[in-house]
Design goal:
Archaeosine Trna-guanine Transglycosylase, Chain: A, domain 4, 23 strands, 14 helices
């Protein structure tokens, strides 16, 4: 780093001795940034013009244990990691792919920008990480996602070049994580191994971008081998891609084509690599990131047609759902998108394409289980609704002891009509309870419960 940064090296090293910044990104699927600022129990400092929903927190805020976090009003995310989703800028109605999405920071960010419209394929090759991804997507009320745990090759073979935007947050040596890790395994050999792996994944990712589509490449590494040199190799082997310009904001530094060890491209294309963005910890309030956008050229040839799912309309299950909906909700969900599979009902995204033999963890919004004689709503349904969309709601403020009791899994006294009840904090849903004879049976998921 001393050789690369020269006169800036001392400032770079000094920044690593300072306390790290804690980022909070407001979830506009639940609440606007302006409205959250009015009710926030924390002091919020705007992160930058590139993302109005992004803020810096004071370090001891303990925002992860606040009921608003359980309600999905925000996502705690390393500040530099918030930039990739903003720059890729997916739009409502698009087909978007997050190739290595766990634990879900960038995926939930993109789903929010898509306003739950279109389809977001969120993938992670490791099943346990994909399960954490699914949990975070559900907490934030994401309903337009296909969540899977597949290899990039299988995704490319299944879908082909259909995606408007693809994000590759590439596995890397993680040099920007040194400050927050007690022990780090690092060596030049690890950097070289990561670079080889990144080259292979980029090759596959290119096969998923439609003509005219955009791919974002991001790492949390500082090494040129994993950043500028990857762009050099990719552009030399994929001549239908070119670098896309990125707007400059405070704290953004351009890519460094002069760091490429063995230039393979023309001088003009080498200069294009300067469109990449470094977020250095001594210039930007985060751990560090590298981001580049590459666009595939438009072609006149016919695009690959999309094969859409025809929902399974299982009559008995739909009947049970309609009965629950009439008794519990004040809204009617789009019946033509309700799909029955494995005794469960799902609300498919408005753009639901066939997924072939992919291993899916979730497709769309899980509504609940169609059991013998009745319908049991899923926690995910509660997290996708608002308080005004249910007939019965028990609402407490964030500092009421009943909130702690509910999140800990306790039943409690509750007057009112029998049936399913939305439990909420300051009007924002936390989950279900079922009232019977003056008692509220707790249906908050066991895996999410916390000590009182």
């Amino acid at each position: 780093m001393a050789l690369l940064l020269g006169d800036e090296y001392s400032a770079f090293i000094a920044s690593l001795d300072r306390p790290r910044s804690i980022g909070l990104r407001v979830n506009p699927l639940k609440i606007s940034a302006v409205d959250f600022s009015r009710i926030s129990p924390f002091s919020l400092t705007p992160l930058g013009e590139f993302e109005p929903a992004a803020f810096i927190l004071p370090e001891p805020a303990k925002a992860g244990s606040h009921p608003y976090h359980a309600a999905g009003l925000y996502y705690l995310q390393e500040p530099a990691a918030m930039v990739a989703g903003s720059l890729l800028d997916p739009r409502p109605g698009e087909l978007v792919l997050d190739l290595a999405a766990a634990p879900g920071g960038k995926a939930t960010h993109m789903a929010a920008r898509m306003d739950n419209k279109g389809l977001l394929v969120a993938n992670d090759v490791q099943r346990n990480r994909a399960q954490l991804l699914a949990q975070n997507m559900e907490r934030l009320g994401v309903t337009n996602a296909l969540i899977c745990d597949e290899t990039p090759d299988h995704l490319a073979a299944t879908f082909g070049p259909i995606f408007d935007r693809v994000l590759l947050d590439a596995p890397c040596s993680g040099e920007s994580l040194f400050r927050r890790l007690d022990e780090v395994e690092w060596s030049p050999a690890i950097v070289e191994a990561c670079a080889r792996r990144q080259t292979g994944i980029l090759d596959v990712a290119a096969d998923l971008v439609r003509p005219g589509g955009i791919m974002a490449y991001a790492t949390c590494a500082f090494s040129p081998e994993e950043n500028e040199q990857q762009l050099d190799i990719f552009l030399s082997t994929h001549q239908d891609f070119s670098m896309a310009p990125i707007s400059t904001y405070a704290g953004f530094d351009r890519g460094r084509p002069d760091w490429i060890a063995a230039p393979q491209l023309s001088a003009d294309v080498q200069l294009d690599i300067a469109y990449g963005v470094h977020l250095w910890p001594h210039h930007f309030p985060g751990e560090g990131h590298f981001i580049a956008l590459m666009q595939r050229e438009e072609r006149a040839e016919e695009e690959r047609p999309l094969e859409l799912i025809q929902p399974d309309r299982q009559r008995n299950a739909i009947s049970l759902w309609n009965e629950f909906q009439q008794q519990t909700l004040t809204v009617k969900l789009a019946e033509e998108r309700i799909h029955f599979a494995h005794n469960r009902l799902y609300l498919l995204p408005d753009l639901a394409i066939k997924s072939g033999s992919l291993h899916l963890l979730r497709y769309g919004l899980l509504l609940g289980e169609a059991r013998r004689g009745y319908f049991k709503p899923a926690h995910t349904l509660a997290m996708a609704l608002t308080g005004s969309q249910v007939q019965q709601q028990v609402d407490w403020t964030a500092d009421d002891p009943e909130i702690s009791a509910y999140l800990s899994g306790h039943d409690m006294a509750s007057s009112g009509a029998n049936g399913w009840v939305m439990v909420s904090v300051d009007g924002y849903p936390l989950g279900w309870g079922k009232r019977s004879s003056g008692r509220l049976k707790n249906h908050y998921p066991r895996g999410l419960r916390r000590p009182a």
